[in-house]
Amino acid sequence: MKKLVCLLIMIVFCHYLSAQDYEPVKLKYPHESAVFLDNRSMLDIAVEGDSLRIRCVVDEEVLYLKNQTDVYGGKKVFGSHFADVTSIEAKTLVREGNKYRVEKVSDFKKNSNARGSVFYDDSYFYAFDFPSVAADNRTILHYEVNYKDSRLLPVHFFQGYVPCVNSSFTIKAPADLEIFFKVLHDEKNAIQFTKSQKGKFVYYTWMGRDVEAMKFETGGPSYNYYSPQLVYFIKSYQGKSKRHTVLPDLNALHEWYKTFIKDLNKKPSQELQELVASLKAGSKSELDLVKRVFYWAQDNIEYIAFEQGMRGFVPHDGSYTLEKRYGDCKDMANLIVSMLDVAGVKSYHTWVGSRDLPYRYSDFSSPIVDNHMIATYISSDGTYYFLDATSDYTAFGFPSSMIQGKEAFISKGDKFEVYDIPVIAKEKSVMRDSMSLELLNNEIIGKGKTTLIGFPKAFGSSELDRSGTADVKKYVTKLIGKGSNKFFLDNYAVADLRNQDRPVTIDYNFRISDYFQKLGDEIYFNLNLSKDYFNSFINTDTRKTPLEIDYAYLKEEIIDLKIPDGFDVEYIPENFTYNGKFLGCDLSYAKAANGRVTLKRKFYLDSILIKPEDFKSWNDDIRNLSNSYKESIIFKRKP
Hints:
By secondary structure, the protein is an alpha+beta fold. The chain is 18% helix and 41% strand. A hairpin with a 2-residue loop joins strand 13 and strand 14. The longest helix has 15 residues. It starts with a helix and ends with a strand. The N terminus is likely disordered.
C-alpha cells in the first residue's frame, strides 16, 4: 500500500514538473490561442439487477499558448433531468519556471439553460471561471454525468472549440451487452478504433490525434452534418432475471414511443367536441375538414416550448391544450390528432427530426434522429399531409421548411411507417414581381406589386406580421429593394397576410437615385434591378462546410420602363437562358410600340443544401448568372 501511495505521489509530482515537455505542442500550433492536450471521456455501463447504471467520466486538459486567452476562462458544463452532472472539479496549473502551482475553482453556479423561446426547460449548466488563464498555464476539468435512461445517450463529438492533441471516447460495458456504434464524417480515418476485453468487461475505444478545431461558417448547417462523431446506442443486455432489449431496431423504438401517446384523448372535453362540430359543419369534404382543423390550431394555439423530464416526450391531452390555448410541438400535434379523431377522421402521431439533425431512422433506431412532433393525415388517394401547426403561416399541403427532406416516423397503432417528407419543388414556392418605371431627372420613379406563394409567403408573413411599423417597413425594403442602397420605399400596402390559402401581396411605390449613367447623348440603364446571388461565389480555398438554404424557389419578374422623352433605343441586350445545377435564369428583352421596353426575368434556386463536392458547380452557376446581370440597355438622344 505504501509503495502504491509513493508511486501516485511521484506521478503527480512528475505531472507538475512537465512544463518543458509542451514546447513541441507550442511549435505545432503557432497560431492557436489554446489547445486541448487531452479531451477524454469514459462511458461506464454496468448492470445492477435488471437495470443499467450508466456513468460518463469526462476529463479535459487545456494548454494556453497566448496571453489573450480570457475568452476561454469562462466554462459551462451542461446537464438535464436525464443527464445529471456531478463531481465537478476544476483547477488551473500556473507555470512557475518548470513547475506548476495549483489554483482551484471553488465557485460553481448552477443556472437554468432555458432560452428566450422556451417556457420551461429542465436542462441546466454549471458556470465557473478558471483563474489565471494565461500563456503556458493549463486548466484541468473533471466531471461525471449520470444517464438516467439507457435510450437517451448522446452523440459524441471528437472536435472541440480549439485543436486537440488527444481526443478519445471509451465505452466500458459487460461482455454480453450488445451495442451499436458508427463513426460519421471521418473521411480521413483520423479516428482509430480498438476493442479489448478485461475479465467480464469489454472496452471499446475511439482515439483521435491532432484533431482540428470545430469549424463554424456563415450559412452552414449544424456541425452534426460534418464534424467527426460517434453514434452509439445499446441494443440489449443480460439482466439478473432475463435478457432485456433497449433499442435493437425500429420496432423497439416504436414500442417505447407508443407509451408516450397510449393514454391520450380518451375523454374529449365538451369544448373540444363543440369546436370540432362547428368546423365539421362548414366543411365541404374530409380534406377540407382536415385543413380547417389544421388552420384552427395554427391560428389559435400559441407555441411555447416546454421540457421537464418525461414531459419532454409525452404530449398533453388534446382537451388540456385546447383549454390552455398554448402548447409545444407535441401538444399541438396531439390536439390535431384528437380533433380529427372526434371528427371521425384518422390521423397519426409523427416524430421527425428538424434539419438541424442529419440522422435518419433508416440508419439509426435511436431518438437521436428526432426532436420534433407533427401530425400526419393520409387522404383516400394516398397523399400524405404533414401537419406542423408550429409553423404559423405554412399553407395546408406544405410541410414546414425545417422538416423538408427528413424521414417521418408515423405511428399507426401497433404498426409504424417511415416515410420520406419531400423537399418542396421550386415551382411551388414562387415570388412574382411586376414594376413600372420612369426616369425623372436623376431618379427612377417606380411602382410595383410583389406576390409571395408557398415558403416565401410563410417566411415573409412571419416578418410582416409584427407590431413594430419600422420593423415591417425595414423588411419590406429588404424584400423588394431594387438597384442599389439608394432605394427608398415611399409607401406600401400588404394584403392577405393571415389568409393561408391566398398569396401575400405587397403594392408599393419607390424611388432610386443615381442608378443609371448619362454619357453625352446616351443613357445606360440596367433593367436587372434585382441581381439574385450576384457574385455569391463560395471560396473553395477556405470554406469546408456545406451551405444551407431555407427552401428552393422560383422568382418571376416583369420590369417595364418608359423610354425617356427625346430618346430612342440604341441597344437591347440579347435574350439569355441558363439552366444550371443549382441556379438558373431566363432573360427576355423587348421594345413595345407604346414607347416602353420590358424585361421578363425568371430566376430559380433549386437546392436546400450545397455540399463541398458541389461548390464548383455552384460557382459555375454564379459566374454565368452574374455575367448575365451586367448587360445594359442604351438609350440615345434623338437627332
